[in-house]
């Protein structure tokens, strides 16, 4: 079993290196990258949901939001229906950066699958989903 754990750690390392490369390319830190990736589509998200999605405390995610707003990537607006909630929206610059991140991730996935046949890709997907399910159920 130890060899599976070691493989997971090695894969985690490679993914982390790739995320660092993307964050450097985008001129944002890893936490900001994680925050932008948490925003889905053009729909706004509340600050509390943002914190939950990136799995950080509200105070830490507030600092990340501040940085993203300062960099012109997100806008904060008070909710029209509930003035106690603050909504986050992409700016055009933020949306374009999100799209660039998505393209970089797609290139990485193409690199990962370029030497594999469709059967191998499906076996890997099934194995990863199974590992994810086991980990979710036990952590």
Brief characterization of the structure:
With 139 residues, the protein is mainly α.
Walk me through what this model shows.
Strand 2 (74-78) and strand 3 form a beta hairpin. 71% of the residues lie in helices and 9% in strands. It is built from six helices and three strands. It has 139 residues and is mainly alpha-helical. Strands 1-3-2 form a three-stranded antiparallel sheet. The chain has a single domain, classed as Orthogonal Bundle (Arc Repressor Mutant, subunit A), CATH 1.10.10. The radius of gyration is 18 Å and the shape is globular.
List the helices and strands and how they pair.
Layout: H1 2-26, H2 30-38, E1 45-46, H3 47-54, H4 58-70, E2 74-78, E3 86-90, H5 92-113, H6 118-138
Antiparallel strand pairs: 1-3, 2-3
Helix pairs in contact: 3-4
């Amino acid at each position: 079993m130890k060899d599976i754990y070691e493989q997971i750690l090695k894969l985690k390392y490679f993914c982390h290196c790739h995320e660092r490369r993307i964050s450097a390319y985008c001129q944002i830190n890893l936490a900001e990258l994680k925050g932008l990736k948490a925003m889905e589509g053009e729909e706004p998200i509340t600050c509390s949901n943002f914190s939950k999605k990136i799995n950080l405390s509200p105070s830490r995610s507030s600092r990340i939001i501040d940085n993203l707003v300062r960099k012109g990537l997100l806008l904060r607006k008070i909710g029209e229906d509930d003035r106690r909630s603050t909504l986050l929206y992409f700016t055009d610059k933020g949306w374009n950066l999100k799209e660039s991140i998505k393209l970089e991730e797609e290139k990485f996935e193409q690199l990962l699958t370029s030497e594999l046949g469709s059967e191998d890709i499906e076996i890997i997907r099934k194995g990863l989903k199974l590992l994810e399910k086991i980990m979710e159920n036990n952590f």
